[in-house]
Amino acid sequence: MYESELERAHGQMLEEMQSLEEDKNRAVEEAFARAQVEMKAVHENLAGVRTNLLTLQPALRTLTNDYNGLKRQVRGFPLLLQEALKSVKAEIGQAIEEVNSSNQELLRKYRRELQLRKKCHNELVRLKGNIRVIARVRPVTKEDGEGPEATNAVTFDPDDDSIIHLLHKGKPVSFELDKVFSPRASQQDVFQEVQALITSCIDGFNVCIFAYGQTGAGKTYTMEGTPENPGINQRALQLLFSEVQEKASDWEYTITVSVAEIYNEVLRDLLGQEPQEKLEIRLCPDGSGQLYVPGLTEFQVQSVDDINKVFEFGHTNRTTEFTNLNEHSSRSHALLIVTVRGVDCSTGLRTTGKLNLVDLAGSERVGKSGAEGSRLREAQHINKSLSALGDVIAALRSRHGHVPFRNSKLTYLLQDSLSGDSKTLMVVQVSPVEKNTSETLYSLKFAERVRSVELGPGSRRAELVSWSSQEHLEWEPACQTPQPSARAHSAPSSGITSRPGSIRRRLQPSGKSRPLPV
C-alpha cells in the first residue's frame, strides 16, 4: 500500500513538474517576445535620439558661441556701465542746469513782477488813501507753555512777504496784507517799513500809526520796545530829529510831544501834574472841524535825552496789570502825539504835521485772562472801545453817511486819523501759538477789513505867511479855546518829591501856551 501511495504521489509530482515546466517555457517565450518589442522600441528611440543629436549639434555650437560672446560682454559690462552712467549723468546734469537756469530766470522775472505789482499796488493805495496794514508775528515764548496748545500755527509764503497762513481747527486760512513780518524780523526791519510815512509829517501831513491785536501779542514791544532795543515811538522821534537837522539850513522846526491814555473811557494826560484828571475832546471853535484836547500837556523836545525823559515819565503813569495772558498787560490805550511845526526861512511857508502813535490795549476773553473786579471792568471797557473801532471800520468800508466816531473816546480821538485827512497805518500783532488761533483769526480778519478802507489822499497842512507876522518864528496855536488850561503849561511845584515829579522838573513845557490838536 505504501508503494502504491508512493507511486501515485510520484506520478502527481511528475505531472506538476511538467505543468510548471510548461508554465516556465510559456513565461519565457512571453518575456522574450516583450523584450523583443521593447528592444525594437528602444532601437527606434535610439535612432531618433541619434537623429536629434545630429540636428542639435549645430544649435549647440551656436549656443556655445553665443555663450562665449556673452561671457566676453559680461567681462566688459562694468566698463560699459560706467561709460553709460557717465554719459547719462552728463546729460542729466546739463538738463538740470538748463532747467535751473530757466527757473532762476522765471523766478527773477516773477519777483520783479511781484515787486512791480506791489509798487503799483502801494501807489494805488496811496492815491486812494487806503489804510495800510502790516502784520508782525511774535516768537513763541516760554510763557506760551508746552504741549499741543503751544505749537506754531502760523506759516509764511517764501515768495510773497504779504501772505500769511493760519492753521485754525485743522483748516488752513490765508490772508493778504501789505507786509508780513516773521518772528525773525527786528525792530529796525519793522521801522524801515513805516519810516517813509513818519517823515511825511515833516512836510505837513497828518500821520497815524496804531498797533492792534490781542493782549500779549507784542503791541507795546513794537511801539515802545525796550531801552536797549527801542520801538517805533522812539525811533520815529530820532528819525524826525535827524531829518530836521538835515534841513536846518533852510527850515526852522519845532517838535513837541504829548502822551495820553484812555483808561476806562477816561482820557488822561500822562505828562501832567495830575495824571488822574479827566480830560475831554473838543471841536476847535474856529470851524475847521479839527479836534483838540484842552489842557493836554505839550513838551518841546530837542534831543534824544528829552525823548527818553518823556517816555520814562509817560510810561511810569501808564496803567498796566498782571493777567493770565500777559505779565505786564496794558490796561489802557496809549497815545504819543508828536507835532512838527516848520517854517521855510526863504519863502515863509509854514507847515504843521502831526504824528499820532497809538498802542491800543489788547482785546481779551475774560475767561482766558482771569480778569476779576477792577480788571474785569477794565477788560469790558477795552473790549467795548475796540468793538466801537470795529463799527467805525465797518461804516467806513460800507461808505455810510454816518460813522459812529463818538461811540467811544478811542474812536472819537482817532476821528481825524480815520476820516480822510491823514495817512494811516495799522500794525496788527499776531500770536503764533495754537491756543490763540481764535484771537489771531479775528485780528487778521479785522486787518483785512481795515486794509480795504479808503480814506482818500492825505492833505498837506501848509500856509504861506508874511515875514511881518513871524517875528522870532513864534507859533500861533492851531485853534484857540476861550480858556486854555494853565495846568498843562505851568511849571511844576518845587515841593513835589516823587519820582515822576523829579522827571518832570527835568522837562520844561514848551514856552507857548496852547491846547494841543489831536
From TrEMBL:
Top-level division of the source organism's lineage: Eukaryota
InterPro entries found in the cross-reference section: Kinesin-like_fam (IPR027640), Kinesin_motor_CS (IPR019821), Kinesin_motor_dom (IPR001752), Kinesin_motor_dom_sf (IPR036961), P-loop_NTPase (IPR027417)
Keyword list, A-Z: ATP-binding, Cell junction, Coiled coil, Cytoplasm, Cytoplasmic vesicle, Cytoskeleton, Membrane, Microtubule, Motor protein, Nucleotide-binding, Phosphoprotein
Broad class of the protein's primary localization: other
GO biological process: microtubule-based movement
SUPFAM superfamilies: P-loop containing nucleoside triphosphate hydrolases
Amino acids binding ATP: 213-220
Composition bias type Polar residues, residue spans: 491-500
Bias (Basic and acidic residues): 1-10
Residues of the Kinesin motor domain: 130-453
Disordered as annotated region, ranges: 1-20, 475-518
Gene Ontology cellular-component terms listed: adherens junction; centrosome; cytoplasmic vesicle membrane; kinesin complex; microtubule
Keyword match ATP-binding: yes
Compartment(s) where it occurs, according to its Swiss-Prot or TrEMBL record: Cell junction, Adherens junction; Cytoplasm, Cytoskeleton, Microtubule organizing center, Centrosome; Cytoplasmic vesicle membrane
Molecular function GO labels: ATP binding; microtubule binding; microtubule motor activity
Record PROSITE patterns: KINESIN_MOTOR_1, KINESIN_MOTOR_2
Cited Pfam families: Kinesin
Topology versus the membrane: Peripheral membrane protein
Function: Minus-end microtubule-dependent motor protein. Involved in apically targeted transport. Required for zonula adherens maintenance.
Family label: Belongs to the TRAFAC class myosin-kinesin ATPase superfamily. Kinesin family.
Full protein name: Kinesin-like protein
